[in-house]
Design goal:
Length: 511
């Protein structure tokens, strides 16, 4: 009998979550939480009243969806339906369901309705060159509070809801790789609140439990603070933002016109992130494509305005197309061109089957335009050029290294590149790598012979011992690993066993 090894939990989770866009996952999690809240009401654990909750949910979803489509038509742009539904669900949890026991509460209903419409308007009015600046739900809730019609109560922060809020938040944070940022915000916010509660006579356990169970710390960080479109591009910037927003979230203050609230803390954080990041929509005009290998293609674009980025960072493209699959129309690609060039290029895997987004990308004709929503990432080389590096690329994982090895970024850094591919014909950018002049080690699984300038590592599996033999000084190098999640997980473990101390990873989920 042959024993089979089941993939690790992380690998299986990556595979499942990789089938969904961030928007689709957040939408499903919030929808499950909404259904759970209705169930809690039926069981008597929430006391809003089922008709009131259903009416509240219908109002939030209907108005955000409808107003978003109307405003999009006014601005002649394609509406993002999933985004509007997410905003509606967030507002459902932010505003208290209007009670009908004492008659129809027109002002309360008007306040919720205004928040929904203002949330949709904020995506277009509070925007800069096509990019919205503020979280729409927070903007709608904050502006409505200023009118006095209604205020956000964040009723989702109840112990009964916590049973599903916590796993839902963890799932989303794992998907967007923001667990560290969320942890920092949570520690800062909970610590500040706990100190205040300890001063009022609570025990330590009570002081820690109260902000987690009865304040919207987890819901806020899982579904709003870590929204990718309103985050700065670098991890250190995101961590600073988490700490700053944590303080604004937890410290009580009253400035007369405004007082501390979760929505105001988030809006301030959004403004800081906007200042730190790419402050405009990136309009790209397609120039052309060239095949790199039988399963890889390079595409080149001319940006309307210069794009700031650091070699190794990615760009998220918005690819509107009909019949989009369940992963949606946004895809992330590493930039392969150096920052000083006028054009932007990306390398795309084109092995079958192709996603609908890739099909639309490959169908572009010269002159066609599309937009990018985000430029960012932390897969960048050490600032000190004297620090030697080992770059490990599995298949399409070669793409982030191109901008690092070409142009002015290459420099005289001590670089070793380990390139894993199936065959010699699948070694993309071979000419560029030869011109870069770095030491390249190729491991080809079919046993074919790599180009002469590459060292042949044979067909042996790259484990810790093999990696140590190929790069004896690995302990003194910063190690970078790029490729599919499963390849990255395996190669990172091999690097650790070989003695690597500083390892950076970049995963390409099935896109």
């Amino acid at each position: 009998m042959t024993a089979t090894m089941s993939p690790p939990l992380g690998s299986r989770l990556d595979t499942v979550l990789g089938r969904f866009t961030m928007y689709r996952l957040v939408l499903w999690v919030l929808a499950v939480l909404a259904g759970y809240s209705l169930l809690l009401n039926v069981l008597g654990w929430l006391t809003f009243g089922l008709p009131e909750m259903i009416a509240h949910l219908t109002l939030c979803l209907g108005l955000t969806y409808g107003s978003n489509r109307a405003i999009a038509a006014l601005f002649h742009v394609r509406p993002h339906s999933e985004s509007s539904l997410i905003t509606g669900l967030l507002l459902y949890f932010l505003f208290w369901p209007t009670q009908f026991s004492a008659g129809l509460q027109y002002l309360d209903l008007a306040g919720v309705a205004l928040a929904c419409v203002l949330a949709s308007v904020s995506k277009y009015a509070l925007a800069w060159r096509g990019r919205h600046i503020f979280n729409p739900a927070a903007a709608g809730a904050f502006l409505t509070g200023l009118t006095g019609l209604n205020i956000a109560t964040w009723w989702v922060a109840t112990p009964a809801m916590l049973w599903l809020v916590l796993p839902g938040v963890l799932l989303v944070l794992y998907r967007v790789r923001k667990l560290l940022m969320a942890a920092l915000f949570t520690v800062v916010a909970v610590s500040i609140v706990a100190v205040e509660l300890l001063g009022s006579g609570m025990t330590l356990a009570e002081a820690l439990w109260q902000p987690l169970a009865q304040r919207p710390v987890l819901f806020f960080v899982g579904f709003m603070l870590t929204e990718p479109l309103t985050l700065p591009p670098r991890r250190w910037q995101q961590l600073v933002l988490a700490a700053v927003v944590g303080v604004l979230f937890a410290v009580p203050y009253n400035l007369g016109v405004v007082a501390n609230s979760p929505e105001l803390a988030l809006l301030v954080g959004n403004a800081l992130a906007f200042i730190a990041g790419q402050r405009s929509r990136v309009l790209l005009r397609f120039r052309g494509a060239r095949p790199l290998t039988p399963t890889t293609t390079e595409l080149t674009f001319q940006p309307e305005h210069p794009v700031r980025f650091t070699p190794g960072q990615y760009i998220e493209l918005n690819l509107p197309h009909t019949g989009a699959d369940r992963k949606g129309r946004r895809r992330v690609f590493s930039l392969t061109s150096p920052p000083e060039t006028a054009e932007l290029s990306i390398g795309v895997g084109t092995a079958q089957p192709l996603s609908t987004a890739k099909q639309s990308l490959l169908a572009l004709a010269p002159g066609d335009e599309l937009t990018a929503t985000t430029v960012g990432g932390d897969f960048v080389l050490p600032r000190d050029p004297a620090r030697p590096v080992l770059l490990v690329a599995a298949g399409i994982g070669i793409t982030p290294y191109l901008s690092q090895l070409t142009g002015s970024a290459g420099g005289d850094r001590d670089v070793v590149l380990l390139y894993l591919a199936r065959t010699a014909s699948e070694l993309a950018y071979a000419a560029e790598l030869e011109r870069a002049g770095v030491r390249v080690i190729a491991r080809l699984s079919d046993g074919s012979v790599p180009p002469a300038f590459m060292q042949d590592a044979g067909q042996a599996r790259i484990d810790g011992a093999a990696l140590k033999e190929l790069v004896p000084d690995i302990a003194g190098r910063d190690v970078y690993v790029s490729g599919s999640p499963s390849s990255v997980r395996s190669l990172r473990a091999a690097a650790r066993r070989a003695g690597a101390r500083r390892i950076h990873v970049d995963s390409f989920a099935g896109y």
